[in-house]
Amino acid sequence: MSGGDPGTEAGTGTGAGTGARDGGVSGTEAGADAGAGPDTGAGPDTGAGPDTGAGPGADLGLDAHLVVDRGDFRLDVRLSVAPGEVLALLGPNGAGKTTSLRALAGLTGLTQGHLRLDGQVLEQPERRVRIAPERRPVGVIFQDYLLFPHLSALDNVAFGPRCHGAGRSEARALAADLLDRMGLAAHAHAKPRRLSGGQAQRVALARALATAPRLLLLDEPLAALDAGARLDVRAELRRHLAAFEAVAVLVTHDPLDAMVLADRLVVVENGTVVQQGTPVEIARHPRTDYIARLVGLNLYRGEAEGHQVRVGPEFVLTGSEELAGPAFVAFPPSAVTLHRDRPESSARNAWRARITGMESHGAQFRIALAGAEDGLPLAADLTAPAVAELDLREGTEVWASVKAAQTHAYPA
Ligand SMILES: Nc1ncnc2c1ncn2[C@@H]1O[C@H](COP(=O)(O)OP(=O)(O)OP(=O)(O)O)[C@@H](O)[C@H]1O
């Protein structure tokens, strides 16, 4: 996601200027559009469904159908998130993650669809409902935190409650308590420039939580940290998010952040949801090339008949599962063996391939291969001694093989 917008300093929920374009609208209107479920976001919003009459308290959590037109790009994403759940929006550059987050925060208006939180409609263009960002119960943590540089950590955190009408000492007491819980009591009077990246992130989290938001939005929460700090901060952020009882949505293009921090992933490509599920489900059953690469699997799509899946006109992979109809077959690069001569074993799928790239990772090599003739492109992981023994280099023609038992087939 591409950085915070300085014009939106401190985000919503803190009461700071959000550059809201529209005036506030009464938030008492409850939801129409009852049809929004956790589906894959395709298709038009049916819009004028029966009013569910839900008020705050009923219909808890986030229910959104975000349709946003930006030039040639259209975002069309449905999200349904329960209180206490942490959802990660994951996707490649330009997929629409930032646009989704800005739409949830109210910083980018919806073209169509709706946004409902705990039964309250925050936005629904069809009904001309649009609550101003600063009046939404939403806290945002921007990628670069956007702390006020001239205020201490304490005053940064106290700012939101002050804007929501708390007295000075009440706001500061609340801020001190939050900073204490974040392990930052000793830094309460430090200015942001004297904080480490991890400390600044905790201040930003405390600031976002200070107004008791019902929706917490995190934009690439670990992107500003160096690799050394990321590990600790990731684990710590996970603890804080696990303790948060309302809805949390984070956007990231880092699969590790998404898998560690979130209960559920929604993968967005080209403005639509291509897959969603728990990290384990997604890692086991990727449904697009982007996701397969993320989770480090070779993935092919074909037509299954029994143990065989036809993945090319002349190419059949034998797997361990029996299936019929459209299917995916996946296997990890570590399951691939490379040979100079055709392997003998019939328990193996084998085909000819040519090495197109080699990268070393510690004692391992990740080798990219293009299929020769009708063979499949693939990635293989080999140890350095194996690479030396086979005398592998870019352009080398080899046989690639994978045991049937190490492939995994599932319905497409
Ligand atoms: N202000 C704008 N006007 C027109 N198109 C825009 C605008 N902002 C973004 N877009 C387009 O919207 C699409 C989605 O962008 P978005 O920033 O939401 O993607 P992203 O998933 O957050 O990507 P990244 O990880 O690179 O930040 C892109 O095709 C982008 O070019």
TrEMBL record:
Which Pfam families does the record cross-reference, listed alphabetically?
Answer: ABC_tran, TOBE
* Region of interest (Disordered), residue spans: 1-57
Top-down, what is the taxonomic lineage of the species of origin?
Answer: Bacteria, Bacillati, Actinomycetota, Actinomycetes, Kitasatosporales
Which Gene3D superfamilies does this one have? 2.40.50.100, P-loop containing nucleotide triphosphate hydrolases (3.40.50.300)
Q: Which organism is it from?
A: Actinacidiphila yanglinensis
Q: Which InterPro entries match?
A: AAA+_ATPase, ABC_SmlMolc_Importer, ABC_transporter-like_ATP-bd, ABC_transporter-like_CS, Mo/tungstate-bd_C_term_dom, Mop_domain, P-loop_NTPase, Transp-assoc_OB_typ1
Name the domain of life. Bacteria
Per UniProt, residues of the ABC transporter domain are: 59-295
The name under which this protein is listed is Molybdate transport system ATP-binding protein
GO terms for biological process? molybdate ion transport
Arranged from A to Z, the UniProt key words for this protein are: ATP-binding, Molybdenum, Nucleotide-binding, Transport
Q: What molecular function terms (GO) are annotated for this protein?
A: ATP binding; ATP hydrolysis activity
Q: Where is the composition biased (Gly residues)?
A: 1-26, 38-57
Keyword Nucleotide-binding belongs to the record:
yes
Low complexity bias located where? Answer: 27-37
The record places domain Mop at 344-411
